[in-house]
Design a protein that fits this description.
alpha/beta; 15 strands; Quinone Oxidoreductase, Chain A, domain 1; Rossmann fold; seven-stranded mixed sheet; single chain; 325 residues; 2 domains; six-stranded parallel sheet
Length: 325
């Protein structure tokens, strides 16, 4: 089978190569999965560049997400059957045609779920779900504010919150995104500028906002901190601006804000099998009902990896870039 491989860290288009690799027979507890689709996430590019917190042993195949079809199973496997559509584990390296995987790490998803959408359930929708459930006890009608609302995780927050009866203030940098995110269920969509504080207060009738989701950092995170209610929690899960959080002391002293972080890899490390399965049951249910549909700009073959990673790393995309095998 063919796989994308990097033997040193650097610019993805320069260090990646498409190589022919052997595909061994599965052990008793393993399954052979033929990959169908795998997205290109920012974390994938960061890993190739050597900028991600976890560095696999080189040579390595990138790719934190992917979906495929079970092609063969070992003699002791009971978790999955041949022909089942599955989501691959996040520590595999999914930019490949096929893989041998411990069967217990596979997540079975319905056949009627499009493979490219199944392939993208494991990071952004799960991140959105956990941030809405793991930090502040939310009730129907409560408000949450987020920046980078047009990102894949941000859109998942909008869809999940809307379905659960939470209301969202969605902050973006481009005016053309305002109507688009409103049409997807965003209750309030505002530009990330110096007028944001008053605009958010007016749009929410000064309702308290007890949860903020920060994927940007820098000035954007500071503006969010000025908007949320006293005792609120701000969860940081990204750093798109590449600038640190810098806060006036008064926001901590007088508003007593709580700042914390979320990294989906850590959740996978600590979640029990029942916790994992429970979350995915809800996400799969949502996806089957037409929710959590991630926008896709373009599909590429593995052989077109140079163009694919270049486009994935560019700004102003209209959706995800994915590999179709």
């Amino acid at each position: 089978m063919k796989a994308l491989v990097y033997r040193s860290h650097g610019k993805p288009g320069e260090v990646l190569a498409l190589e022919e690799l052997p595909l061994r027979q599965p052990a008793a507890n393993e399954a052979v999965v033929r990959l169908s689709a795998a997205p290109i996430n920012p974390a994938d590019l960061n890993a190739i560049e050597g900028k991600y917190p976890v560095r696999p042993e080189l040579p390595a195949t990138p790719g934190f997400e992917g979906a495929g079809i079970v092609e063969a199973v070992g003699s002791d496997v009971r978790e999955v059957t041949v022909g089942a559509q599955v989501i691959l584990p996040h520590d595999l390296g999914t930019w490949r045609e096929a893989a041998v995987v411990p069967a217990e790490k596979l997540i079975v998803v319905p056949d009627d779920l499009a493979p490219e959408q199944a392939a993208m359930l494991k990071i952004n929708p799960l991140t959105a779900w956990q941030m809405l459930h793991g930090f502040v006890r939310m009730e129907q009608g409560d408000w949450v504010i987020q920046n980078a609302a047009n990102s894949a995780a941000g859109r998942a927050v909008i869809q999940i919150a809307h379905e659960l009866g939470y209301r969202t203030v969605n902050v973006v940098r481009r005016e053309e995104l305002l109507d688009e995110l409103r049409s997807e269920g965003g209750d309030v969509v505002l530009l990330d500028n110096d007028e944001l504080r008053e605009a958010a207060a007016a749009a929410t009738e000064r309702a308290p906002i007890r949860l903020g989701l920060n994927a940007v950092g820098g000035e954007s995170a500071l503006r969010m901190a000025k908007i949320v209610a006293p005792e609120a929690t701000i969860v940081t899960y990204g750093a798109m601006s590449l600038k640190p959080l810098t806060l006036p002391n008064g926001l901590l002293i007088f508003k007593n804000l709580r700042f914390t972080g979320f990294w989906v890899n850590k959740w996978y490390e600590h979640a029990s099998a029942s916790e994992r399965d429970g979350v995915f049951r809800r996400l799969i249910e949502f996806a089957q009902r037409g929710l959590l549909q991630t926008k896709i700009e373009r599909e590429y073959s593995l052989g077109d990896f140079a163009a694919a990673v270049a486009r994935a790393g560019a700004g102003r995309r209209e959706g995800k870039i994915i590999f179709r095998m």
